[in-house]
Amino acid sequence: MSNVDSMQDVMRLPAELLFQDELKALIAEDRGTIPTGWQMSPQAVLKFIVGGVAGKQKITPKYIGNTRIVEMAIATLVTDRALLLIGEPGTAKSWLSENLAAAIYGNSGLVVQGTAGTTEEQVRYSWNYAMLLAQGPTPEALVQSPIMRAMEAGGIARFEEISRCASEVQDALISILSEKTISVPELGKEAHARKGFSIIATANTRDRGVNEMSTALKRRFNMIVLPAPADLETEVEIVKKRVAEIASSYDLQAAVPADEALHKVVTIFRELRSGMTLDKKEKVKSPAGVISTAEAISLLTNSMALAASFGDGEMTDEDLAAGLQGAIVKDDDKDRLVWKEYLDHVMKKRGADWRGLYNACKEINP
């Protein structure tokens, strides 16, 4: 029985299991030069991320956007430089980070999740305190961080939302990235990084000013900015692909949204995000919350769940309206007014094709 077969009831498979067949096909056909510690060549990693064919296996695209950005990210990881992916919410930073780690190292699970409560111990190491009290500092009592484990194995560690951590936690990375070691004075030893070790970090541009990264730390990273989808059709393609994947993993008994519904949702999100209608003829107010591609994906999967659970499986305007209300109106007073103005000044004027969705939205937000 394969790993995937034994984990059928897992809500979310890691990328290395979700795309296990693709990785095997790429490794089997790979004739490129494979860097030390990697399981495939940079060219094969690129194909895994942007899509293609390996033998008879179709390789699904994991990132839809500028291929040069992906090439720069992969080239960074070939060197001893760490990689920092920066972007607005919903620009696929974490998804790209996970899939790069899965392709290069075959394990995307060595992750430090950055929050206000993340400690330096989670970056370096901690102790099993029961064993520490009973035996003193011993190798068995040492609890390695994901970064230390990646160092000793020559693998890829991921640091999500690094800018949400306190500055002293961020700065714990400086010596790791510079010296490629973690000192454990209690044991009189150092953990040394093997070839292949690197860190992929992500940072949200909305968090700028929360815990600004120091210049010293920034110098240890190659920074790549992931842009929001450049145009409507690209964003529709991204949303369509991810909605189909998520719906399949959740086994939602509902039809995939029609292209018309996808275009409407993405149009609304792009206009509210930019503060301007797509034809540039009218300004609109933006809500306080994040109106990202990821939010559009979540909205549509939730609407599918509504259609499957309480309808006939076909998504209706009422299902979409409920999803839009939840995605856009986060700050009740301000966002409700912004949404009401958009409905009355923009959507209402769009004619018969939009009439059903407009009426359903107005019923919820009169």
Kindly describe this structure.
- This protein is α/β, with parallel strands linked by helices and 366 residues long.
- Helices cover 48% and strands 13% of the residues.
- It is built from 16 helices and eleven strands.
- The chain has helices at residues 15-18, 20-29, 42-50, 67-78, 93-105, 120-123, 129-135, 146-153, 167-179, 215-218, 232-250, 259-274, 293-310, 317-328, 332-345, 352-364, and strands at residues 52-54, 57-59, 82-87, 111-113, 125-127, 142-144, 156-160, 181-184, 189-192, 198-204, 221-226.
- The strands form four sheets. The chain has a five-stranded parallel sheet. A two-stranded antiparallel ribbon has the order 1-2.
- A hairpin with a 4-residue loop joins strand 8 and strand 9 (189-192).
- Helix 13 (293-310) crosses helix 14.
- It is globular.
- It starts with 14 loop residues before the first helix and ends with a helix.
- The mean pLDDT is 91.
- Please work out how many helical segments DSSP would assign: 16
Overall structural class, as computed from helix and strand content, comes to: alpha/beta
Physical arrangement of strands within the biggest beta sheet: 4-7-10-3-11
**Strand portion:** 5-15%
C-alpha geometry: globular
Distance between the termini: 55 Å
How is the quaternary structure best described? single chain
Radius of gyration from the CA trace? Answer: 23 Å
Task: Let me know the number of strands.
Answer: 11
Helix content: 40-55%
Indicate the low-confidence ranges by residue numbers.
none
> H/E series, N to C?
HHHEEHEHEHEHEHEHEEEHEHHHHHH
Mean pLDDT: 91
**Biggest sheet statistics:** 5 strands, parallel
